[in-house]
Amino acid sequence: MIWTIAYWVLLVLGVLVGLRALLWDRAGFCGRAKLRCRKCWYDLTAAPGDLREEPIVCPECGKKHASRRAMRKTRRSRRWVAAAMVLVFASYSVRMTPKIKKYGRWAAVPNWVLIASIHQIPEFVQNPDIEWEAISYGRSSSFQRAHGVLQWKARVGDLSWFDYQLVAWLARTEGEEGLCIKNDGRANGVQPRATAYLVLMESGIRRGKLGEFHSRWYRQLVSVKVITRPAWPEGYRVFGRPQILSAFGKYAKDPHLRVRFFDPTHGTSIFSPTSNGLPWKIEDLDFSGLQFQPPRFGRPSKLANIAWSDGMIELKPRDPSDNYADLQVTVTEYMGEGRELGEPETVIDRYQLSVPVARVRDIDQLVTVVSSQDIIDEIQRCVRAEGYWWYDLHGQRRIVLSMKLKDDPRIQRRRYTFGNDTITARRNSNGGLYGGAWWALEPTADGGWHLVHGWKLVSMYGGATEQSLLTSGDQPWRLLVSSNPEFCLRDLEATHVLDGGFSLQISWTMMPEDEW
Question: β-strand 280-281 against 56-57: which pairing, if any?
Answer without folding.
Answer: unpaired
